């Protein structure tokens, strides 16, 4: 399929990607709503404790730090337009995720000194907060078709008249729970997709503040494929996936790569490393596994945001 322009391509990509993502996200939602969540796992079992206080609809604006001891002593948050301060007896645990945690630390004065000074934030500690952003970058461009009509259809998965779905919806039990084995029988499908993922990327991105204001979202610079080794590793993953498509088993189903030739990559010889580098820069995206932006390390570790 040749796509004439970038707009058409992006629209097509969105459609393909949404289609590919729909199935796993459906199942994920099932897991999240019925099998587990932070609320169910951590709060339900201890909801009767008198030393646990939870405040909802509250936005933390900064971590309070004692300027003499340089220790975190509490947090300031806004609830119902009111600014409230709470103080800790022992310690403050900051767990606002890999994007908001560094934002809060920087707003509290812990971060790259120049960056904070530029935004008018008093520097309490010069530290590489927001640096070292790591993610599981994933290539979404490897879908193969097969000629055998032995696969499951999306409708089968969600059709409430199927016993495994009704059993799950009514009784919260049945085959859907045992996804490892029970879905195996659907594994011979009309198509299959491999998602090569960089599990240990060398590239590092960063989170930076755009304003001295918790309500202004920080900038995310993922810097994917900045390190050439990441490009090489991803291409190696693609070639492994292609070789799987060539196996006797896959060929028995006339397995063929859904060869979408991206206009942006037309200048490169198809299947050359340069072509795949172009393709991965076009069609890779996040798995939302951000981490590393407030790295704890021993004192003396220049990449550590705080001491562990
Ligand atoms: C679409 C998607 C799918 C994923 N799928 C998987 C998966 O299948 N398996 C897996 O292992 N991981 C998955 N992940 C990754 C996983 O969700 C994260 O790694 C994990 O949730 C990170 O946990 P955390 O506690 O560090 O941060 P979060 O879960 O992001 O929690 C941070 C919390 O802090 C709150 N917060 C932030 N700022 C403030 C503030 N200023 N004041 C008050 N509260 C604040 C946020 O509202 C949030 O509740 C997925 C992520 C996404 C987005």
From TrEMBL:
UniProt cross-references to Pfam families, sorted A to Z:
GMC_oxred_C, GMC_oxred_N
Q: InterPro entries, alphabetically?
A: FAD/NAD-bd_sf (IPR036188), GMC_OxRdtase (IPR012132), GMC_OxRdtase_N (IPR000172), GMC_OxRtase_C (IPR007867)
SUPFAM superfamilies to which the protein is assigned, alphabetical: FAD-linked reductases, C-terminal domain, FAD/NAD(P)-binding domain
Q: Which Gene3D superfamilies match?
A: FAD/NAD(P)-binding domain, Glucose Oxidase, domain 3
Domain named Glucose-methanol-choline oxidoreductase N-terminal: residues:
97-111
Task: Please give the Gene Ontology molecular function terms for this protein.
Answer: flavin adenine dinucleotide binding; oxidoreductase activity, acting on CH-OH group of donors
Which family is this protein grouped under? Belongs to the GMC oxidoreductase family.
This one is known as Glucose dehydrogenase [FAD, quinone]-like
Q: Which organism is it from?
A: Temnothorax curvispinosus
**Gene that encodes it:** LOC112465067
């Amino acid at each position: 399929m040749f796509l004439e322009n970038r707009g058409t391509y992006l629209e097509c990509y969105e459609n393909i990607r949404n289609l590919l993502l729909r199935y796993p996200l459906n199942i994920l939602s099932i897991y999240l709503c019925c099998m587990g969540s932070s609320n169910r796992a951590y709060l339900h079992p201890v909801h009767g404790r008198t030393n646990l206080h939870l405040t909802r609809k509250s936005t933390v604006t900064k971590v309070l730090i004692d300027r003499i001891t340089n220790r975190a002593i509490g947090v300031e948050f806004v609830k119902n337009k009111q600014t409230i301060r709470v103080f800790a007896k022992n310690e403050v645990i900051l767990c606002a995720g890999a994007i908001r945690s560094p934002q809060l630390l920087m707003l509290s004065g812990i971060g790259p000194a120049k960056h904070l000074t530029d935004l008018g934030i008093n520097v309490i500690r010069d530290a590489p907060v927001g640096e070292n952003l790591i993610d599981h970058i994933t290539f979404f461009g490897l879908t193969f078709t097969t000629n055998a009509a032995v696969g499951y259809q999306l409708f089968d998965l969600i059709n409430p008249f199927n016993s495994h779905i009704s059993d799950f919806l009514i009784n919260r039990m049945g085959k859907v729970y045992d996804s490892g084995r029970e879905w195996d029988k659907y594994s011979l499908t009309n198509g299959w997709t491999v998602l090569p993922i960089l599990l240990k990327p060398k590239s590092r991105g960063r989170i930076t503040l755009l304003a001295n204001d918790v309500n202004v979202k920080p900038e995310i610079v993922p810097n994917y494929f900045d390190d050439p080794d990441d490009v090489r590793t991803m291409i190696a993953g693609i070639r492994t996936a292609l070789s799987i498509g060539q196996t006797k088993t896959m060929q028995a189903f006339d397995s063929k790569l859904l060869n979408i030739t991206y206009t942006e990559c037309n200048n490169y010889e198809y299947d050359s490393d340069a072509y795949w580098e172009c393709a991965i820069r076009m069609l890779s995206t996040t798995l939302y596994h951000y981490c590393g932006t407030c790295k704890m390390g021993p004192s003396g570790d220049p990449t550590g945001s705080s001491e562990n």
